[in-house]
UniProtKB/TrEMBL annotation:
Naturally occurring in which organism (per UniProt): Sphingopyxis panaciterrulae
UniProt name for this protein: dITP/XTP pyrophosphatase
Keywords: Hydrolase, Magnesium, Metal-binding, Nucleotide metabolism, Nucleotide-binding
Protein task: Pyrophosphatase that catalyzes the hydrolysis of nucleoside triphosphates to their monophosphate derivatives, with a high preference for the non-canonical purine nucleotides XTP (xanthosine triphosphate), dITP (deoxyinosine triphosphate) and ITP. Seems to function as a house-cleaning enzyme that removes non-canonical purine nucleotides from the nucleotide pool, thus preventing their incorporation into DNA/RNA and avoiding chromosomal lesions.
GO BP annotation list: nucleotide metabolic process; purine nucleoside triphosphate catabolic process
HAMAP family (UniProt xref): Non_canon_purine_NTPase
Top EC class for this record: hydrolase
Source organism phylogeny: Bacteria, Pseudomonadati, Pseudomonadota, Alphaproteobacteria, Sphingomonadales
């Protein structure tokens, strides 16, 4: 694949998830890239009609670049639970219902984590609790070219949820070789080991 080099300047983060946008901003900070989020620009949130992380990341990246005329970086990610045959996978966000919290629209992550745990519990106390977070980044250019980078982080699920940092399913995910959840470790430490950091390292090698 031919990579284009991203010049320091404007880039759209094609995500409406505040937790993700915060992480991507932190990961971009050291590269002189000045990102603006799709939400900041008032860009619409496209429907994620794909059945793979790759397809959805491309849908989101192309939608933002078409609407803004700027290169756009999208992230489609999710949790694959081994004992659930890889579910919720590409449907990870959908398992958390949209709800209003303190006047802001968000998702009910506690309910979603409970749903995963309920399905694991049905398989008995010795169920395999291993899981992996997946992150697929798509970078789309105004001329229609796009490239995709995939990252993974292995780990296991714990219950009940622990920690208040991060976002989404972080309170139940313990990365491999660690004892604390993603929501209990410093954001900088999450950025050193996460699925998003893994995908990001490949993006950096390709386009920066
Ligand atoms: O580091 C993570 N820590 C915890 N949970 C995570 C993480 N990474 C992805 N996840 C979960 C939550 C997220 O909502 C879903 C991805 O769904 P996904 O469609 O890619 O994102 P989204 O709908 O929340 O925002 P958007 O599409 O606007 O980028 O997987
Ligand atoms: Mg989404």
């Amino acid at each position: 694949m031919t990579h284009r080099k991203l010049a320091p300047g404007r880039l759209v983060i094609a995500s409406h998830n505040a937790g993700k946008v915060r992480e991507i901003r932190a990961l971009l900070a050291s590269f002189g890239i000045d990102p603006v989020s799709a939400g900041d620009l008032g860009l619409p949130e496209p429907e994620e009609t794909g059945t793979t992380f790759r397809d959805n990341a491309l849908v989101k990246a192309h939608a933002s670049t078409a609407a803004s005329g700027l290169p756009a970086l999208a992230d489609d990610s999710g949790l694959e639970v081994a004992a659930l045959g890889g579910r919720p996978g590409v449907y990870t966000a959908d398992w958390a219902e949209r709800q209003w919290f303190e006047g802001e629209k968000g998702r009910d992550w506690y309910m979603a984590m409970g749903k995963v745990e309920g399905l694991l519990a049905e398989q008995g106390p010795d169920v395999d609790r291993s899981a992996a977070f997946v992150c697929t980044l798509a970078l789309a250019w105004p001329d229609g070219h796009a490239e995709v980078f995939e990252g993974r982080a292995a780990g296991s699920l714990t219950w009940p949820p622990r920690g208040t940092l991060g976002f989404g399913y972080d309170p139940v995910f313990i990365p491999a070789g660690k004892s604390l959840t993603y929501a209990e470790i410093d954001p900088a430490e999450k950025h050193a080991i996460s699925h998003r950091a893994d995908a990001f390292a490949k993006l950096v090698a390709g386009v920066f």
